[in-house]
Amino acid sequence: MAYKYVIYEKEGNIARVIMNKPDKMNTFSFFGGKDADAMEIWNAFDEAAEDDDVKVIIFKGAGRCFTVGHDLSKVGKVYGMGTGQAGERRPSQRIRLKLDRNGYEVPMRSIFLNPKITIAQVHGHCIGGAIFFAIWCDLVVAAEDSQFGFSEQRLGFAGSGVTMSHLVMTIGLKRTLDLLLTGRTFTGKEAAEMGLITKAVPPDKLTDEVEKLAKAMTLLPRDGIAIGKATRHLIYDRLGLTGDFTPAYISHTLFTNLRWEPDEYNFFKERRDKGTKTGFKVRDERYKGLT
User: How many distinct structural domains can be found in the chain?
Assistant: First the structure.
């Protein structure tokens, strides 16, 4: 399969899915049409899933980082917001729900329920929706100095719009609320200490550690891997984790209809008046000295 935004490699029993927008720090959009670069990620995971030779998928980013998350220059516009046309109407709930369901509920299972063993290799930034790209993988190895953060929560989500059960199950309720409500950044080392990821290693050891882990996983039999993943699917169902994608997309839809009061930060207004880069810098400057 040909890809524009993804490099797909295969070596023996290992496939590598590499996000490849280094000039944009591997930002992505979940949604349909020509801007749906994240859909290539889902397709690459599906390609590996269908290849009987593949036992393990390594998921990583090209360039300076894993990914900085959603492309904030497109946020909202995928629904039809901010067209600048005279008489522009607020996008309907049915448009929001359709796009969010197609972008969240269905394709994200390509990673979380993939029948192969999945390993995320994280370096640089892993911000916002990018964290879920990582934790939906079976194993996550990060550089100790990598930077994690749910910074998009500062746009107004305030603990919504995410697959929250995954976080609570992984790191506990109080840590989950701390990370979501503050949107603070934290290192790969701290992420490992709290149990959010599998382990953190020195940056110069990252690739070697991931490759060794992947090779160890290829020693498992194909049927053993498939049975293990299928069994865990049943367990995830019982724990409610597979159903967590539904409230995530619905809460995201509700958030996109948020009304900001005059004394509150409004990213869409800041982006319109000052541009995307300045818009999210203003967002984070408000938190200096507070988190």
Answer: 1
CA angle at 107 for the pair 157 and 155, rounded to the nearest 5°: 15
Token pair for 32: 């349909």
Half-sphere exposure for 268 (CA within 13 Å, toward CB): 18
- Residue 125, pLDDT score: 97
Question: Is 9 exposed, middle or buried, given 0-12, 13-18 or 19+ CB atoms closer than 10 A?
Answer: exposed
Structural domain contains residue 158: yes
Burial 79-88 (b: 16+ CB within 10 A, else e): bbeeeeeeee
Between these two residues, 276 and 34, which has the higher pLDDT value? 276
What is the pLDDT, as a whole number, of residue 31?
Answer: 58
Here the tokens at position 169 are 């199950």
Rounded to two decimals, what is the model's pTM?
0.92
Q: Which of 170, 129, 127, 122 is nearest to 145 (CA)?
A: 122
Q: In this predicted model, what pLDDT tens digit does every residue of 130-174 receive, in sequence order?
A: 898 898 999 999 999 999 999 989 888 888 888 889 999 999 999
Residue 82's domain is classified under what CATH number?
3.90.226.10
